[in-house]
Design a protein that fits this description.
By secondary structure, the protein is mainly α. It has helices at residues 2-19, 22-33, 49-65, 71-94, 100-133, 138-158, 160-192. The longest helix has 34 residues, at 100-133.
């Protein structure tokens, strides 16, 4: 049961990395510092005061940057690999009572996979939003991503099983939004296509 809860914590934090890279790392660091969340020995550094301060600064900078027009889209191009790596790290760090082989296998497949899936969905949603609303809806999208990452990170530490259910729901919602915006985008481009001239 303890391993299952650790996996739930890892999946919740990994999914949160797909929304914001540093928010779940900050949450993990604070929880470890307070003694709420045990970490694997190799990741004990994440529970230090230095790590908390560093992640807090990085979180503030990341959140602020996503409210700058067009910078948000530029960040998405590098956030994908970073989110995947962060997902692997947070998953590996919370799997304490498991052999290294299985820890890293789960970290790469589950942690990295969930983080990448969430990041891809949000990136596609932002790209579609930029094209359909000229970027005006992007601050709203950024706020939703910030809140989602924060709430999911807290739930992952406090209520891991609830976090797992939330991850499933959030991923389904993200891909539904991508599908909806994609349909709107297709309709928009079809309207712009010139009608062929009728020859006599």
């Amino acid at each position: 049961m303890e391993i299952f809860l650790s996996i739930c914590v890892g999946i919740g934090l990994s999914a949160a990395c797909g929304f914001r890279v540093f928010v779940p790392l900050l949450c993990l660091s604070i929880a470890a510092k307070l003694g709420v969340l045990p970490l694997a020995p190799a990741f004990a550094w994440a529970g230090t005061t230095t790590a908390v301060v560093a992640f807090a600064v990085a979180t503030a900078a990341e959140i602020a940057a996503y409210y700058v027009p067009w910078v948000d889209n530029a960040l998405d191009s590098i956030a994908g690999p970073l989110a995947t790596v962060a997902g692997v790290v947070v998953m590996a760090s919370v799997l304490t009572d498991i052999e290294p082989f299985w820890r890293w296998t789960l970290a790469v497949i589950a942690g990295g996979g969930v983080a990448a899936s969430t990041q891809i969905a949000t990136t596609k949603a932002r790209a579609a939003s930029s094209l359909t609303t000229a970027g005006f809806a992007n601050p709203v999208l950024s706020t939703i991503e910030n809140v989602s990452s924060t709430v999911l990170s807290i739930f992952a530490v406090v209520w891991p099983i609830v976090a797992l259910i939330l991850v499933i729901g959030i991923l389904a919602l993200c891909w539904a939004i991508v599908w909806f915006l994609g349909k709107r985008l297709v309709k928009l481009f079809r309207r712009k296509e010139p009608t062929p001239a009728v020859t006599a």
